[in-house]
Amino acid sequence: MTSLSSVLIVDDEPAVRQLMSRWAASAGMSAHAAGSALEALEILDERQYDLAIVDINMPGKNGLWLADEMCREHPGTAVVLATAYTELLDGRAAPPPVADLMLKPFSRQRFLQAMDRGREWHDRARAEVEYHRQLLDETSRRALALRTLVNAERARGIDEAETLLGRLAQQLPDVRSHCDRVSEQSARLARALDLDDKTVTEVAWAGLLHDVGKLAIPESLLTSKTRLRPGELAIVRRQAEIGAGILGDTANLRDVAPLVRAVHERFGGGGTPGGLSGAAIPLASRIVSVVDAYDAMINDCSYRGPLDPSSAAAGLLRSTPGQFDPEVVITFLVMIGRP
């Protein structure tokens, strides 16, 4: 089990801070104290701590706020919450991910038990980091192997798109079928938007190749029957960027790369990978994004069944304009008879 050497005790009562500091010192830990959430953040900016014991009910910013801040800014510190007022936890949409929750007043033995749970938290966190590193390494290896294959096949005179789509059909047949549908519907939508033939062709290619990056994602993530953990989801969400990188290395498909890269940007901003918004997102990408989402909703995925078309249309409207271009969505819904 991981050894803990330092603890930050955050409580607005000096006597409580002193008592817990003595308990921590008797357990061989270096203890430091803060009287408020803001003071604790200032200390954490200067030094990393293995563990923080945080009182929830403090004046000003409370311990729940501090725990959320630490989760974002100091994820390497295990947090143990302490409170005599459990009602303060009521009504929270999601509690912060903490190692333990102690109810005041608590004994020295309970305090030491919280130390053990902090060690267990560190063990789990270390295992998660290693698992995430392995997934990243596998993704990189698979992307490199795919680039090598495309180059080798091109040298033999085989079309690059044929190689990628053939591998997609072989490795992920459901994804290939999805790409075919998205390409066809995206081209229809481009025509409904009165775009010229050249742009319609670009849109069709972007739809056909928008998921090619999934070839580099470990199948265990793509076929998971449960919702992915945050680290797993972060890797899956890189698939458009990975696919764009693969396409950018080709001789004949590199013009499609920026369109694929931007498929998961959000019209209102905050998407990936570039945080583009509005007209800065290529129109072809905005078109494919809408069709991609609708097709995914009305077909089976690994962890849920298909939605009916009306529910899928409502889902698009709820996500407009935050995620989708309003003009593209309305034109698409009119086109498929779901205004």
**CATH topology of the largest domain, anyone?**
Hypothetical protein af1432
> What does the average pLDDT come to?
93
Instruction: Work out the number of β strands.
Output: 5
- Counted by DSSP, the helix tally is 14
Widest sheet, order of strands: 2-1-3-4-5
Low-confidence sequence ranges? none
The helix/strand class is: alpha/beta
Beta fraction = 5-15%
CATH homology group of the largest domain: Hypothetical protein af1432
Large-scale geometry: elongated
> Given this structure, which CATH class of the largest domain is correct?
Mainly Alpha
Task: Report the sheet with the most strands, covering strand number, pairing sense and barrel closure.
Answer: 5 strands, parallel
Total separate domains: 2
What is the rounded Rg?
Answer: 26 Å
The N- to C-terminal Cα distance equals 58 Å
Helix content: 55-70%
